[in-house]
Write a structure and sequence with these properties.
Blueprint lengths: L1 H27 L13 E10 L6 E10 L2 E6 L9 E11 L1 E6 L5 H4 L1 H6 L2 E6 L14 H12 L7 E2 L26 H13 L4 E4 L5 H13 L3 E4 L7 H7 L3 E3 L3 H5 L4 H5 L10 H9 L3 H14 L2 E3 L2 H8 L4 H4 L9 H18 L3 H21 L3 E2 L15 H12 L3 H6 L3 H6 L17 E4 L13 E6 L2 E3 L1 H15 L4 H10 L2 H8 L1
Parallel strand pairs: 1-4, 5-6, 6-7, 8-9, 9-10, 10-11, 11-12
Antiparallel strand pairs: 1-2, 2-3, 4-13, 13-14, 14-15
Helix pairs in contact: 1-20, 5-6, 7-11, 10-15, 12-15, 15-16
Length: 516
């Protein structure tokens, strides 16, 4: 018996050692990001129909001359010779697209960047950050700046990061254990200190979140303005939309904005310790039934007058509504999502269904539809609507999901032209890139997408991508399919589970989220 026990222990020990070695090997296993195509110093694109996103016109049979990653000529015939030429074969040329609400992780160069480029998304507003301490999971400001420079210098395949943001400021529960929790803005003094902290790190803007206290929010926006920064993100529950516009918040995220802010009893809910515990089936239906149209019209007017942008991310509310839908849960694009993340997405969908309660799924569907309706009304009221997905939040597919969101905007009542502007010229203007991005004209970055069909006639044409040009690099359909296939292979690789587990468990930011 003793010999058997010793033998079993040896086998168990050997198996444990093998498991440790396997896990460590997987964690350390190198994963290569795709390599950019060679970029010619000059290149002439011929025979394209340029979609003018300023006027809504299509200018047929144009040529586009690119030099060192920038557009230097757009017109009938460029006065050049003996340079590489790319025949556009009558495709429709649109500016590279922006996703104005996305998130990045350490493995983005392998997992999400190729998906963005394959989908024609050549720039993102990353709306997540860290606190400047090393984090194995979350991409921090220095990495995003390095990625942005590498795109410009033709060193990586990925979207541009024109600005970088802070970690969400939510009252302190989000702050990693090794840092002063007051930087979460539990007090006005902490909020002011947070502005100084992030200013010193070169952060461009500060992300507000739902649980940020009222007095801290106003201290944050004031200090941000004094330091040539701005606030964007969630509207804190304790603050009204009118107050936030007056305080200078530059964008509001997510389609619950007008659902909450135009509910007559919202002022009674602001002071609750746990607002979302009261966001029940009955409350959701009351928010729709008792919606104050006049108050909403007033809020939309002050937003339009102030230039406050709205990024509805309808994709996130679709999750709530379709959490149990079999077709939704088995989207074929899930093959591009690593198994650990797929599991989290499906768990999120299950949790949304559980939160809904009996009959509650209908109220989530009603909120989803009502949010679409409000986006259309806001657009007609002159509010700047920007396209964003919240990728890679649950079922918000990086890159691929922007076409979903553009279709949402058209469903909401925007024209295809309006929707296209929400992902091109309007994001560029918001980011201070007027004339440099979001347009196809001399002086702009050479980020161009060639489509098989005219998106001004049907926004679904943004899915018919023939070629993507990024900083002057040409990626034809074969190249784009290669990027997609590469992500699919990495997403299904044997080392993904250990990498995700190790990086998430060792992330100071993720540990705080797990604790909550």
């Amino acid at each position: 018996m003793r010999k058997f026990t010793l033998g079993a222990l040896k086998i168990l020990g050997a198996a444990t050692l093998m498991l440790i070695v396997w896990f460590a090997t997987a964690v350390l296993w190198p994963v290569d990001a795709p390599v950019p195509n060679v970029r010619a110093a000059q290149m002439l694109i011929t025979n394209v129909n340029v979609v003018d996103v300023e006027t809504g016109n299509v200018i047929n049979d144009q040529q586009i001359l690119i030099k060192d990653g920038d557009i230097v000529f757009v017109g009938d015939r460029a006065a050049v010779s003996d340079i590489p030429t790319f025949d556009g074969r009558g495709r429709y040329a649109v500016p590279g697209l922006f996703d104005m609400h996305a998130h990045s992780i350490k493995m983005s160069p392998m997992l999400t960047h190729p998906l963005f480029i394959a989908s024609g998304v050549t720039a993102i507003r990353d709306i997540n950050g860290c606190m400047g301490i090393d984090d194995p999971w979350v991409a921090c400001a220095d990495e995003k700046r390095a990625w942005n420079a590498a795109v410009k210098n033709a060193e990586i395949v990925g979207p541009r990061y024109d600005q970088v943001t802070s970690l969400a400021i939510n009252g302190g529960s989000e702050i990693p254990d090794d840092l002063d929790p007051s930087l979460g803005g539990a007090t006005p003094e902490g909020a002011v200190a947070r502005v100084a902290y992030d200013k010193a790190r070169g952060i461009d803007y500060l992300k507000s979140y739902t649980q940020l206290p009222r007095d801290s929010y106003f201290a944050l926006t004031k200090a941000a303005h004094e330091n040539d920064m701005y606030v964007a993100g969630h509207l804190p529950i304790a603050v009204s939309g009118f107050e936030a516009v007056e305080a200078g918040q530059r964008s509001f995220e997510h389609a619950l904005l007008f659902v909450f802010e135009c509910y007559p009893d919202m002022s009674d809910l602001r002071g609750l310790d746990d607002f979302f515990a009261h966001y029940t089936y009955e409350t959701r239906l009351k928010m729709i039934a008792e919606h104050d149209k006049e108050k909403c019209a007033d809020l939309m007017k002050v937003m339009a007058d102030a230039g406050t942008a709205y990024v509805p991310t309808h994709t996130t509310r679709k999750l709530d509504a379709f959490a149990l839908d079999p077709a939704y849960r088995n989207d074929p694009r899930l093959k591009y999502i690593p198994a650990p993340l797929r599991m989290l997405w499906l768990n999120d969908a299950d949790n949304m269904a559980r939160k809904a309660g009996n009959g509650g799924q209908e109220s989530y569907m009603a909120i989803y539809r009502f949010g679409l309706e409000q986006t259309g009304i806001a657009h007609r009221a002159g509010v700047t609507v920007l396209a964003g997905t919240d990728a890679p939040d649950s079922f918000a597919f990086p890159g691929l999901g922007l076409a979903d969101e553009l279709e949402h905007l058209v469903e909401a009542g925007l024209s295809p032209f309006d929707a296209l502007q929400s992902a091109t010229i309007k994001p560029a203007a918001f980011l201070g890139l007027h004339g440099r991005a979001g347009v196809i004209k001399s002086g702009a970055r050479a980020d161009i997408v060639l489509l098989d069909a005219n998106p001004l006639e049907d926004i679904k044409a943004v899915r018919s991508i023939d070629t993507v040009i990024l900083a002057g690099h040409v990626y034809d359909r074969e190249d784009l399919d290669g990027l997609l296939n590469g992500v699919e292979q990495v997403a299904s690789a044997w080392y993904m589970w250990p990498k995700f587990i190790w990086q998430a468990l060792n992330s100071p930011i993720m540990r705080k989220q797990f604790a909550d």
